[in-house]
Design goal:
The complex is a heterodimer of chains A (246) and B (339).
Chain A lengths: L1 E6 L5 E7 L2 E8 L5 H15 L9 E5 L5 H18 L3 E4 L1 H7 L7 E7 L5 E9 L2 E11 L1 H11 L3 E4 L3 H5 L9 E3 L9 H13 L18 H24 L1
Parallel strand pairs in A: 1-4, 4-5, 6-9, 9-10
Antiparallel strand pairs in A: 1-2, 2-3, 6-7, 7-8
Helix pairs in contact in A: 1-2, 3-6
Chain B lengths: L4 E6 L4 E8 L3 E9 L1 H5 L6 H22 L9 E7 L3 H17 L4 E5 H12 L7 E6 L4 E8 L2 E7 L5 H11 L6 H9 L24 H16 L6 H26 L4 E5 L6 H14 L2 E3 L3 H4 L4 H13 L19
Parallel strand pairs in B: 1-4, 4-5, 6-9, 9-10
Antiparallel strand pairs in B: 1-2, 2-3, 6-7, 7-8
The chains are: A alpha/beta (246), B alpha/beta (339).
Amino acid sequence: MKILGLDSSGLVASVAVVQDDLLLCEYTVNYRKTHSQTLLPMLDELCRMTELSLEELSAIAVAAGPGSFTGLRIGSATAKGLGLALDKPLVAVPTLEALAYNLCGMEGIICPVMDARRNQVYTGIYRFEGQQLVTVEDQMAVPAEELLEKLNGYGEKVTFLGDGVPVLRESIGLLKVPCTEAAPHQNRQRAGAVAALGGKYFKEGRIQSAQEHRPEYLRVSQAERERKAREEMKRESETESTGENQ
Amino acid sequence: MEDVLILAIESSCDETAASVVKNGRTVLSNVISSQIALHTLYGGVVPEIASRKHIEKINQVITQALRDASVTLSDITAIGVTYGPGLVGALLVGVAEAKAIAYARHLPLIGVHHIEGHVSANYIEHPDLEPPFLCLIVSGGHTHLVIVKDYGEFEILGRTRDDAAGEAFDKVARAIGLGYPGGPKVDALAREGNPRAIEFPRGKLSDCPYDFSFSGVKSAVLNYLNGAKMKGEEVNRADIAASFQKSVVDVLVDHTMLAARDFSMDRIAIAGGVASNGALREAMEKACRRRGFRFYRPSPILCTDNAAMIGAAAYYEYRKGTRHGWDLNAVPNLKLGER
């Protein structure tokens, strides 16, 4: 069983192939360059290095969000195009689950954090039972303070990772439990983790067709948000004015 | 010679489209998934919403295009895709998808300029049309007057200095309460109005007779509306639509005829979304007939954004040997004639 992993959800672009219990190849670049320009050449390099023919793949696993909207779509469109062209299924791996899987087997609470801007982080709360990833709280977009409060509730040591960790630093005083940060080789998105976790999900039958796959943004667009706010304001002023009439 | 089948993908704005085109001129399928209804809520195209819709629809649209053409990917010679100009997030969906398909199937990849696509829409229904000819390209984002010297080779004679023609239509439509998309709505209402009722200015630029300016006429419409509002007068929206449209169409036709005379061109084509405007088609046809020019225009369905036109353009690029690498990126402000 060979699983291709793709992750372009954040600043990192990463491609990998996992064969059964072995990482055959991983190519990860954490450098400000457009994923649109790098992702497919990286895949091409990976195929050449491992003499991989894409027809051998069992499935294409992709970091399916949250993350940069555009970055997610580059990864998803690439996965969808490969899936369509090769007639292979996709495995949508939640970005934060894949990030947490970098620390597979670690004790305590695992908390991957991504910078979501607008004073929020994308995060989730996980732990490992042996090698099994257990979701304690599913991925979400919340203010840093809210996340720290949640973590206090578990009363356990926390290991943070991800590009959102600097966002937490300002309010880290709120955290009442011990914490550490993952090592440099573990603390960003890696397609090896996407492919490895994707392989597990594939075996569990958690697959999608290339056609139905779409990213999970965890957030509506700004235009939708503003329209909703306008409508709510309108509704409130309407109820107020009817109130006055009574 | 063996048939060349291009699978073309277009996602530069608010239509997700795919098409299979044979030898540049025969459209085997032309699938368009429009998002207009969605963007109408916002009075215009919202880039993030457009991009999200593209990724939801793109595989379905491509699969349908292959099915409608009764072919599979094994029959396809090359993949063509719009890589600019347009909304970057929207373009990226088509580009990433096209690259992945081409890579996985070992097919040549051809990035196509969106406007070159619009021009090429004329080849589809006019087997006799070959370069050189004069082409007026008018859409929501572009207003260009060009000589098509050869397939994919353009000499730009004039362009807009401010708003694109279609943009002026959208803004005026909004001002008189017609909403989005403005072009077809102004066109329809104008049929009930008198084009000579109000004299709006014709944008003329003394230093370059082929260039365009539409911000003046747009402002004149807004001023007219404001003036009427201050005086408490009712306005006749149909007359405004008809008079505004006439002032835009007059300029488009005048400049095209001037360029045809100056450059001795006797074949005139129009392209782009605004090329489906009824008044423009009639006026250009009349002006061409009077001078003995041949006039070419795509059917309205091929004027708006579609992938068949991208397939036509990609075919001629394919013949010329154009091939793009796996690092092809979306270029939102790609200039006409650039590679």
